[in-house]
Design goal:
It is built from eleven helices and ten strands. By secondary structure, the chain is an alpha/beta fold. It has one domain: 3-Layer(aba) Sandwich (Rossmann fold). A six-stranded mixed β-sheet has the order 6-7-8-3-9-10, with helices on both faces. The longest helix has 16 residues. The protein starts with a strand and ends in a 6-residue tail after the last helix. The mean pLDDT is 93. Bound molecules: adenosine-5'-diphosphate and magnesium ion. Magnesium ion binds next to helix 1.
Length: 241
């Protein structure tokens, strides 16, 4: 579904990603783990067109999307729930969700039924249903994270990119967010999940990749990575939860 080959990217003269390759098969949940500053967010930004890769290929379906504009990439079915959530604070919950469907209405993919997808989001995220007329800025951190995920899903994406959905949330809400991700996985939503919270990410994922200083240093079935001594020492110690 999404195949990344030798992707390099950075900011100006600073190269952050040094030729990473990664595969997200249809209907699987892949997690990219790594320390703060490893380049996880940069990877997702390059995939969704927020920054232009300097080299490499990003195959979505059969098309190389590397270097396309972000609105074009969204139209082709790649949704990005960004780090820090970035909901539109002065718009209602409902309007945030409808904005998530905008790109699919202008693209050539099947448009589907936005109203019934909106209902589906309210079923999946009951708290958003209760708060549908509220300004997004008045939601709690956990609720804003749910909204960011639901907004991305309103694209009816072929692949969903999730950047640190647990960031800044209380433990109870982290558990809720991961339960929702597990539910999406069970519904065969194809996802690339970036997390610093490696143990939880490997528990929920099918496949894992470890990113260190802009390079993939380990990959494999998530369960195998979880028992890999090197991965345990670096990412699964007590300090990493
Ligand atoms: N907008 C930016 N401009 C310049 N450097 C950046 C920018 N964003 C991130 N970086 C640098 O890129 C590196 C990787 O950052 P990032 O992808 O955010 O890591 P992660 O998400 O794994 O914590 C870091 O050294 C960071 O300082
Ligand atoms: Mg990050």
């Amino acid at each position: 579904m999404l195949t990344i080959e030798n992707l390099s990217a950075g900011y100006g003269k600073v190269q952050v990603l040094h030729g990473i390759s990664l595969e997200v098969a249809k209907g699987t949940l892949v997690t990219l783990i790594g320390s703060n500053g490893a380049g996880k967010t940069t990877t997702l930004r390059a995939l969704s067109g927020m920054i232009a890769p300097t080299s490499g290929r990003i195959m979505l379906g059969g098309t190389d999307i590397a270097g396309l504009a972000s609105h074009d990439i969204a139209r082709r079915g790649l949704a990005h729930s960004p780090e820090g959530r970035r909901v539109f604070a002065t718009l209602s919950v409902a309007d945030n969700l409808l904005l998530g469907s905008f790109s699919r209405l202008t693209g050539s993919r099947p448009k589907g039924d936005v109203a019934s997808d909106l209902d589906r989001m309210y079923t999946l995220f009951p708290r958003l249903a209760e708060r549908r007329t509220q300004y997004a800025g008045t939601l709690s951190g956990g609720e804003q994270q749910m909204l960011a995920m639901a907004r991305a899903l309103m694209l009816a994406p072929d692949v969903l990119l999730l950047d640190e959905p647990s960031m800044g949330l209380a433990p109870k809400l982290v558990a809720e967010v991961f339960a929702t991700i597990a539910l999406l996985r069970d519904n065969q939503v194809t996802m690339l999940l970036v997390e610093q919270f490696a143990a939880a990410a490997l528990d929920v994922a099918d496949i894992g990749y470890v990113l260190e200083n802009g390079r993939v240093t380990a990959s494999g079935p998530a369960a195998a990575l979880k028992t890999d001594p090197a991965v345990q020492a670096a990412y699964l110690g007590a300090a990493h939860g």
